[in-house]
Amino acid sequence: MKRIEHIGIAVKDLEAANKTYATVMGAEHYKTETVESEGVSTSFFQVGESKIELLAATNPESPIAKFIEKRGEGIHHIAFYVDDINTEIERLKGEGFRLLNEIPKPGADNKLVAFMHPKDVNGVLVELCQEK
């Protein structure tokens, strides 16, 4: 794992959250993107070498909608940048961790992603990500 790539924050209203975080950061978001397969719209803010990713559900069945319904808005996941996602998946499986995605899938911001089961990581949803 090279660095924290981003922290994902689940929000109900992406436009309102963009305004809030633009004020907090003192800068506008640099990118928005919809990931249809996940039912989510995203917005990214750069913070040094890392990013903040705001996530809003595009439909009531999406994982983000379910997260907000159960837990409310807030930190959804922490993503770590890796050079070789497949090698990291195998390494972590070898260490006994469960992965929600044993095969990387396309994610936002031109990344391949895989998630670790939060029950194995002290209740935190951990995302591995690599440039496509």
From TrEMBL:
Classification via InterPro entries: Glyas_Bleomycin-R_OHBP_Dase, MeMalonyl-CoA_epimerase, MMCE/EMCE_epimerase, VOC_core
Example GO BP: L-methylmalonyl-CoA metabolic process
Superkingdom, natural source: Bacteria
Protein EC: 4.4.1.5
Enzyme class at the top of the EC tree: lyase
VOC domain sequence ranges: 3-131
Any GO molecular function: metal ion binding
Keyword match Lyase: yes
UniProt KW keywords: Lyase, Metal-binding
Protein family according to the UniProt entry: Belongs to the methylmalonyl-CoA epimerase family.
Protein name per UniProt: Lactoylglutathione lyase
